[in-house]
Amino acid sequence: MKLTPFPFPLNIGTDIVHLPRICRLIRRPASSNGNGGAKATTTTATYLDRFIRRILCEEELKDYYAKFSALQHHSASGAKTLTTVSPPGPAMNAANITEMARWLAGRFAAKEAARKAAPGGASTIGWKDVMVRIDRERNGSGSVKPEIVYLKDGGVRGEVGKLSISHDGDYVVATVLAATTRTTTQLPDG
């Protein structure tokens, strides 16, 4: 059978995230902090901190801290930390956790979908090599439309991909459409 290749140089990636998984990550207390195994209320090494630092690029970290600044406080050293358990600092009630989980799940699903849509696949691109960006300047309608940016040259330049994120109940789904270099592939007969 002779097959005609797909006529456009495009890749697509999709990912789904279960919100309760992200909520558990946010609520998970820090490991033992050397005080007899007692759970720390704040630390720079919480599971949440490690998660955001692993998947968010510098610009996304700024967005994250700006959006959730009410849930932050500063340690004696001045480092930003997040409260994972109520006192001290602002209480992280169920609404705070859900809002944070939805934001993080959207970023995680979008980045994973973008990695799947990358020309070489997810294994060829890191979490911090893609960024979810809200372009408020170009969008005159007042609504916010996220897009994916494939960062190149250490974030000096980038290539934009199309992004759709959908939140429904306990799930967040993201789909990314990205351009790729066109190659001619000989398809096997039969």
UniProtKB/TrEMBL annotation:
GO terms for biological process: fatty acid biosynthetic process. The keyword Nucleus does not apply. The keyword Transferase applies. Keywords: Transferase. The lineage of its organism: Eukaryota, Fungi, Dikarya, Ascomycota, Pezizomycotina. Residues 12-175 form the 4'-phosphopantetheinyl transferase domain. One of its GO terms (molecular function) is magnesium ion binding. InterPro entries: 4-PPantetheinyl_Trfase_dom, 4-PPantetheinyl_Trfase_dom_sf, ACPS. This is 4'-phosphopantetheinyl transferase. Pfam families: ACPS (PF01648).
